[in-house]
Specification:
It comes from Jiangella ureilytica. The chain is 19% helix and 28% strand. By secondary structure, it is of the alpha/beta class.
Length: 197
């Protein structure tokens, strides 16, 4: 069975964004090297260090489905209709799609009213072997609380933001994680934890 995972670039003090949603230096590691990485579906090329590129290529391309919240969808402008890794994407929202949506007829997005429905649809689409990426700190927290999240990935950036949006803020109880896989990049440490169920 595939893995349900959440991955964020995170400050040392636990924030994934500033109060206004901007990411500041949290994504600088995507451009601080000379190895080209072209994620499926992204119309951009990253330039990472070799260590970060190897980690990315090994961990970031197995998603059979992607679940995101509306705030991240809006912030990313729907990724121009091409979601991360070109995976079928389920947007959890109580609002209708934007008026100008979709940008082209076969954009692989489905707008869903609640997280349990989105997760059920994602599991069906991902099949037995496809991973499900969960994006948005609120959704990651809800998945942890429900016992659905199998893996937590943190791209730990050496910066203290002081305030903002935390990766994990509203957990119902303590969550135990296994010891991490650690990959040291430049200006980032990649941490991969299995959730103990």
């Amino acid at each position: 069975m595939g893995t349900v995972l959440s991955s964020f670039s995170t400050s040392l003090d636990g924030f994934v964004a500033a109060p206004d949603g901007s990411v500041g230096p949290l994504f600088d590691w995507y451009g601080n090297g000379d190895v080209e990485v072209r994620p499926p579906g992204y119309p951009i090329t990253f330039h990472m260090t070799q260590a970060s590129a190897d980690y990315w290529n090994r961990t970031a391309t197995s998603e059979g489905a992607f679940v995101t919240g509306r705030a991240l969808f809006d912030y990313a402008r729907g990724w121009g209709g091409r979601p991360p890794n070109d995976a079928p994407t389920f947007v959890v929202t109580h609002r209708p799609p934007p008026d100008d949506w979709p940008p082209f007829p076969d954009a692989p997005f489905t707008f869903v009213g609640d997280l349990p429905t989105a997760m059920a649809m994602a599991r069906e689409v991902a099949g037995d072997d496809g991973d499900i990426g969960v994006a948005g700190p609120g959704l990651a927290q809800q998945c942890l609380n429900a016992g659905w999240l199998d893996e937590v990935r943190i791209d730990l950036v050496p910066v203290l933001l002081g305030r903002g949006i935390r990766y994990f803020d509203n957990l119902d109880s303590q969550v135990m994680l296994d010891d991490p896989e650690v990959v040291e990049g430049s200006r980032v440490t990649h941490l991969r934890y299995r959730v103990r169920h």
